[in-house]
Amino acid sequence: MVRKRLLIYGDVEMDILLKTESAEAGAYDVKVDDIRFSPGGSAANCAAIAGSLGQPVTFLGSLGSDTWIKPLLQDFRKFNVNTRYLKKAAGKTGTCVAVVNAAGERKFHSYRGVNESDPPDLPPQTLWRHHHCLHLSGYCFQQPNSRRIAWSLLHEAKRNGLAVSLDPSYFFAKQSGSEMDELLAALDFIFPNLDEALILSGENDPVKAARVLRARGVNTVLVTLGSDGCLLSTNETEQFVKIKPVNKVVDTTGAGDAFCGGFLTGWLKGLPLIQACKLGCASAAHIVTQMGAHEQAPTLTNLIDILHNNNEGELVIQLKNLS
Q1: Domain boundaries, the chain
Q2: Mean pLDDT, all residues of the chain
Q3: Among 215, 221, 223, which Cα is nearest to 196's?
Q4: Res. 199 pLDDT band, cuts 50 70 90
Q5: CB 69 within 8 Å of CB 90
Q6: Which residues pair with 213 in a beta bridge?
Q7: Where are the beta strands (DSSP E) in the chain?
Q8: DSSP state of 8
Q9: What is the mean pLDDT of residues 269-289?
Q10: Given phi > 0 = left and psi -120 to 50 = alpha, else beta, which region is 217?
Q11: What confidence score (pLDDT) does residue 23 get?
Q12: Sequence-ordered list of residues with C-beta below 8 angstroms from that of 42, at least 6 positions apart, any chain
């Protein structure tokens, strides 16, 4: 049996997490109760989650020539992510300061660094023969340098018969025009959160928003809905899927990325779309009970425990057969 490989392009960065119990979000001076340095970046989060679940994954991205390079490379190795095509650029590694409040909600202040200024080189043609899905981050399309690489990768993926998925960002969702139409028409999967889905579609309801995105060419739309799970929308089905966390929500950073990593792992392992959604929701349910976007990425055993507590016996049996 061929092990289907996942290729991911996007940002890798170091997150500086500032945890505060203060409710005075708009205050001039807010007390920070805890600080943590944690590997992050939307695409890197997705890669780590997938790798932790046993999915073969290759990452394309850029690291700067600074102190973050060593811990970020170690982090990728920890989750068995292939970094052969990760570029080591002259410049500053991407960094994000995330302020996490008492409810686990966060506000980001991002610096993309070499992710934006010096993106990776295009991989050799031989790489395409060994991968089955290309996953792109919406952040790649925000600036000319990384946008050029993202489009080149997308065209090569389609030419070589790979599925293509996209996790849009808020700024990506606000773009419009013929380029957006071309991009959406090329996608097999899109993973907008609710705000992004409404902006992209011009609708005020997730079901209607998903239908608009499918009408613009996307095969499968998965709208992530935070604690309410996700909406799966295809030509054959529209279904809400929800998996509850076992423990208290601590930090929602990386929940959407965890969903992408879990879903794509399930789909590449041959699970039906509904079951892959449950795997995505379980991955997100695990990650929100931890501090950091993916340092404590779930294993299949973690997800089996969560799904067992959600009475998903059939999926538990399927995952045990995969592990």
Answers
A1: 6-13+41-94+114-167+243-322
A2: 93
A3: 223
A4: very high
A5: no
A6: none
A7: 6-9, 13-19, 34-40, 57-63, 86-88, 94-100, 106-111, 133-137, 163-167, 189-190, 220-224, 230-233, 238-241
A8: E
A9: 96
A10: left
A11: 64
A12: 10, 11, 137, 138, 139, 167, 169, 256, 257
Residue 251 pLDDT > 90, yes or no?
A: no
- Compute the radius of gyration of the chain from its Cα atoms: 18
- Would you say residue 104 has pLDDT above 80? no
Q: Is the pLDDT of residue 107 over 90?
A: no
Of residues 163 and 110, more confidence is placed in 163
CB 286 within 8 A of CB 323: no
What is the enclosing helix (H) or strand (E) of 215?
Answer: helix 206-215
Is the pLDDT score of 1 beyond 60?
Answer: no
Orientation of helix 206-215 relative to helix 194-201, angle to 10°: 50
Q: How far is CA 258 from the centre of its chain?
A: 6
* 17 CB-near residues (< 8 Å, 6+ apart): 34, 35, 36, 37, 38, 98, 100, 251, 253, 291, 292
Task: Specify whether the CB–CB gap between 307 and 61 falls below 8 A.
Answer: no
Cα–Cα distance between 204 and 198 in angstroms, integer? 6
Q: What is the pLDDT of residues 2-50, one digit of tens each?
A: 689 999 999 999 999 888 887 665 556 778 898 989 999 999 999 999 9
Topology classification of domain 6-13+41-94+114-167+243-322: UDP-N-acetylmuramoyl-L-alanine:D-glutamate ligase (3.40.1190)
